[in-house]
Every structure is written in C-alpha cells, then in structure tokens.
Design a protein that fits this description.
two-stranded antiparallel ribbon; 7 helices; 58% helix; globular; 204 residues; mainly alpha
Length: 204
C-alpha cells in the first residue's frame, strides 16, 4: 500500500455523498421529483447495496474520472492522462467501469464484458487481484458502474442548473440507459428499476 500513501480513502461516507448528488440535483432539481416515504426507503436500500459492493472490493489507486475525454494521444508513453488530481484509494473496478461504460460513448455490451474479463485475467496475473470468480468480478463491475452513473447524472444536472453548462444534459439518457440495464439484471436493485420506471421515465 506504500505507493498509495497520502491519498484519501474512498470510504462509505464518501460514496454516499456522491450518491446523494443524484437525489438532490437530478431527481430534485432537474426533474422536480420528491420521493415518497416508500421510495425513500427504497433509495436507502439502493445505496446500501452499492456501497457494500464497492467496499468489499480490493483497493487500488482510483483516478475517479478515467474516461475517453481525459485520455490524450501523446508520444510514447501513451496515453496522456488528465484530471488525476482527485485520485483516491478505492475499488478496483471503478476506473475500469468509468472507461468501458463511458458516459460519453457507448460500446457493444458483449465487447465490454470481454474487455472487463480480460482486465481481470491480467490483474490476477500481475498480482493486483487474487484469484477472483468472473461472476463476482462482473457483479462488482456492474454495481460500481451503477454508483458512478447515479453520481454522473447528478453532476450533469448540477452543471446545468448551478454552473450554467447545459450541454452535459445531453449525456444523461445514455447514462440512464446504463442504469436501467444493470437494474433489470440484478434483483437486489429492484428498487432502482422501479425508481427509473416510475419517476425518471415518467418525468422524461
């Protein structure tokens, strides 16, 4: 862990603060949605599932904004990486899902799965990860993506309403599509599936 000394830890309260950006800025400010008491309980369950999955993963250096717009073609070594100032110690799948389920570009889902499992094989080979069942790794990957995409929707709405940068809302539909897909495939995210169907889709 010595190379990671000095970086903040991506812990439970940190993850929860990010999730609340979705509820405050996307649901509340952007869509004008106020959750019912039952939906608030559902939101708590969503947060608990996503945070627990993130915290059980091995920890590495996490860039936190590792996507296509922050990777630059340079002279070797390439790529050049931008916006690394918010790096933390956090879940091993975070940067991987940021790149492969990029909010700004969508890849074929089968290719994404192949790339994710290719990363797993290389991570085990290089000692970054212990032997890990592919199913478990893909679950970490999917649920980490859900946490990130909820946060991203909130940030895009905040950029629109607080910072006067409206073009980011154009990337919200793609991000919601990622959330919808994962929620439909994981029974533990049934509350998220209902939230998207009953509140997000209805308000859209």
């Amino acid at each position: 862990m010595r190379p990671l000394e000095g970086l903040p830890v991506y812990d439970g309260p940190f993850l929860r603060r990010e999730l609340e950006i979705f509820r405050e800025w996307f649901l509340g400010r952007h869509l004008g949605v106020e959750l019912t008491p039952e939906e608030k309980l559902g939101w708590e369950r969503i947060c608990a599932v996503l945070i627990a999955s993130a915290l059980e993963q091995p920890r590495v250096c996490v860039h936190r904004d590792y996507h296509s717009r922050n990777l630059m073609v340079t002279n070797p070594p390439s790529p050049g990486i931008l916006d690394f100032q918010d790096a933390v110690i956090g879940p091993v799948t975070y940067d991987l899902v940021s790149l492969l389920r990029d909010c700004y570009i969508a890849w074929n889902p089968d290719r994404v799965t192949d790339w994710a499992l290719g990363y797993l094989a290389l991570a085990v080979q290089s000692g970054i990860l212990p032997e890990t069942a592919p199913e478990r790794f893909l679950s970490w990957f999917d649920l980490m993506g859900a946490q990130r995409h909820l946060k991203a929707c909130g940030i895009f709405a905040r950029l629109r309403h607080r910072d006067g940068k409206p073009h980011y809302v154009n990337d919200i539909p793609r991000t919601i599509d990622y959330l919808r897909d994962v929620a439909e495939r994981y029974p533990e995210l049934a509350d998220l599936q209902r939230l998207i169907r009953d509140r997000v889709d209805e308000a859209a």
